[in-house]
Write a structure and sequence with these properties.
The chain is globular, with a radius of gyration of 25 Å. The protein contains 21 helices and 18 strands. By secondary structure, it is α+β, with helices and mostly antiparallel strands. The strands form 2 sheets. Strands 1, 2, 3, 4, 5, 6, 7, 8, 9, 10 and 11 form an 11-stranded antiparallel beta sheet that branches. A 7-stranded antiparallel beta sheet has the order 13-12-16-17-18-15-14. The longest helix has 44 residues. The protein folds into 2 domains: 287 residues, Thrombin, subunit H (Beta Barrel), CATH 2.40.10.120; 226 residues, no CATH class.
């Protein structure tokens, strides 16, 4: 399809509103949504949200680490993100003597702020459509996909090289949108000296633990505070005591006015990955095969970790971050599986495809659905085996240790790993056909009476461990991965056609590109929801709910005594904690600023409701809600629990 027609389609569909508040929109193209946003309550202009000519809200938002979002809340580089985003760094600074996970951490002056080697934040400098430049030299119909890939890489590399030639921490990426129908260049400036300033105790920052994770009502104080440092020229620099707090182009003003149902909100962050436009076979595989099997495997891992963590504070510190990482996706998949079934997403997709098939008769797209179905039939058995390998073999720390992959012995407890080895390898052997096991594995399995016996040798002998790891990695990284990669490339190519076809089929629909960890804007409003018959969840939780859940006998619900004392004194019963809104979010949006109609900070996004986790594949306006931490609770904890009120002095409040 000619580029001119494609751009016409992209621009035209963006002018039409979507149902409810679905969508993750590119900031550079926000002018195409601004009328709808303003009609729903926004008081800002498109230039206020994204500009390359003046400071705008984009300059106060960062990609935090490799998969979260953060926001600047002072002109001295102070940054808010989620507690779970900073959790790994808090854990690295913790020990039995200084248990910052359990007790929290508060730097009472700049000299006490803790450096975090390897932690970076990225500011978006600019983004632009470079589709013509990326595809320059490509001749459709005269070149195959391999030629296209080479041209795209060559042109993209040239664009990235030109974009970062001035240095000073500049980074660039060229990202494919709409399955390669459009390409955007993203130019960032990366800062490398990011220090921990404050974090509440886990009994606040992870209040409710995995029981409350993805659930509502929620009462988790999920925030941590960092500060960005720079050289004296305000440019990125490696850690040095001579560095100074970074002065941002823009920092967010904070509103203490609060929220009420119906208020306009928008989220500015870096959503990680969505698959909104996939074929029904993709949804069927996820909901009926992938999610259930991964849930079962992670359930075993979590039970083993928890058993040992409950027995030892040292082990709890070692494995807290690992446990949280395993559990987060585990519970999300449960909600996703349940939501996809309840919404009958597979059937809905199939009905859509039936209408599409009728429309596509006699067009260049007449075979696209059959091609997708065939490719999934070819791929799914292989992909299942590969996913099973990732969730079993690659989750055993002993095998990771000898394989050369990054591994930190400080956070290793062998009894957990030994029990995990037995459980996961038994599942691997039982639930995969022998065709998906290397000859070495089959040979060694025949030599041992049990996985327990084999485990003893693998953990006693580095040679045995390496031989097993090498055999499994070589088998899956070789023929399995190469076949899966080849089929995925064919799927990508077919989806490129299907994406264009969907836009022609529904020219009145507003299409937004799938999330890919680049900066996006999602907007909606504060609203509760009905998860089941006769139940309505109000959109705001309070400190009263924390006290109702408080239980000194349960680690995840054992709040600090200070918080109990404050509540007992009276006057804080209605202190807001969290709130719900209809903004379309996903992983990567953790830590994203939630802004009001004036663009002022009212909260930090940190989760979605369990019933709405299907939104990575299908947005259900009745139950898809994002959960945010009310900024007023953050300020309350900083002052009353952290006794770090001096941090508030550098923030700007508007009410």
């Amino acid at each position: 399809m000619k580029k001119t027609f494609l751009l016409t389609v992209f621009l035209a569909v963006a002018l039409f509103p979507l149902k409810a508040d679905e969508g993750m929109w590119l900031p550079a193209l926000i002018s195409q949504r601004i009328t709808d946003m303003q009609a729903k309550g926004l008081k800002l202009s498109a230039e206020d949200i994204y500009s390359v000519n003046q400071a705008s809200l984009k300059d106060a938002v960062v990609l935090f680490g490799s998969g979260c979002t953060g926001e600047l809340v002072s002109d001295e580089g102070l940054l808010f993100t989620n507690h779970h985003c900073g959790y790994g760094y808090i854990q690295k600074h913790s020990s039995v003597e200084h248990d910052y996970l359990k007790d929290g951490f508060w730097a009472l002056n700049r000299s006490q702020e803790l450096p975090n080697p390897g932690l970076t934040v990225r500011f978006l400098e600019r983004m632009e459509d470079v589709t013509d430049l990326v595809l320059k030299g490509y001749k459709p119909g005269k070149m195959d996909e391999a030629d296209r890939i080479k041209i795209v890489k060559k042109n993209s590399d040239k664009l990235k090289e030109q974009a970062v030639k001035d240095g000073n921490g500049l980074k660039a990426s060229v990202e494919a949108l709409y399955y390669g129908n459009q390409y955007f260049l993203f130019v960032f400036r990366e800062y490398r000296d990011v220090r921990l300033v404050g974090a509440p105790p886990s009994s606040i920052g992870k209040f409710g633990g995995e029981t409350d994770n993805w659930m509502w009502p929620r009462h988790t104080g999920d925030f941590s505070i960092f500060r960005i440092y720079a050289g004296k020229d305000n440019m990125p620099a490696d850690y040095s005591e001579d560095n100074v707090p970074y002065t941002p182009k823009k920092s967010l003003k904070i509103s203490r006015a609060g929220v009420k149902e119906g208020d306009f909100t928008f989220v500015y962050g870096c959503p990680g990955s969505t698959q909104e436009y996939v074929h029904s076979e993709a949804v069927k595989y996820i909901s009926q095969v992938s999610d259930p099997e991964k849930i079962a495997l992670r359930t075993m891992r979590l039970q083993i970790m928890k058993k040992y963590m409950d027995q030892s504070q040292a082990v709890r510190i070692q494995y807290s971050s690992k446990y949280a990482g395993v559990a987060n996706a585990w519970k999300k998949w449960q909600g996703e599986e349940k939501g996809l079934k309840k919404m009958k997403t597979v059937a809905t997709k199939q009905a859509y495809e039936a209408r599409f098939r009728e429309w596509a008769r006699g067009t260049q797209y007449k075979d696209v659905l059959d091609n997708l179905a065939y490719l999934y039939e070819e791929r799914n058995a292989l992909y299942r085996a590969y996913e099973y390998y990732n969730e079993t073999v690659r989750s055993i720390e002993r095998l990771r240790m000898v394989s050369g992959r990054p591994f930190d012995m400080k956070d290793y407890y062998q009894p957990i790993d030994e029990e995990t080895f037995v459980a996961l390898m038994e599942a691997f052997d039982k639930n995969l056909d022998d065709a998906y096991k290397p000859a070495y594995f089959l040979q060694k399995r025949a030599e041992y009476d049990s996985m327990e016996a084999w485990k003893d040798d693998v953990f006693a002998s580095e040679e045995d461990a390496r031989a097993l790891s090498d055999a499994l990695d070589a088998f899956f990284a070789g023929p399995i991965v190469s076949k899966v990669r080849s089929l995925n490339e064919s799927l990508q190519l077919t989806y490129r056609d299907y994406m264009r076809a969907q836009m022609e089929f529904e020219p009145e629909k507003a299409f937004y590109p799938d999330a890919n960890l680049t900066l996006r804007v999602a907007y909606g409003h504060v609203e509760g929801y009905r998860p089941a018959d006769a139940i309505y969840y109000h959109p705001v939780s309070t400190l009263r709910g924390i006290i109702e859940k408080d239980n000194p006998d349960i680690f995840d619900y054992n709040i600090p005594q200070t918080l109990r004392d404050i509540y007992a004194q009276g006057g804080h019963e209605d202190q807001p904690v969290c709130f719900l809104a209809t903004n379309h979010t996903t992983g990567g949006n953790s830590g994203s600023p939630v802004l009001n109609a004036d663009g002022n900070l009212i909260g930090i996004n940190f989760d979605r409701v369990w019933e709405g986790t299907l939104s990575d594949l299908a947005f259900d306006p009745d139950v898809c809600r994002n959960i945010s931490l009310d900024v007023r609770y953050i300020l309350f904890i900083i002052k009353e629990i952290g006794h770090a009120g001096y941090l508030l002095d550098e923030m700007c409040f508007v009410d």
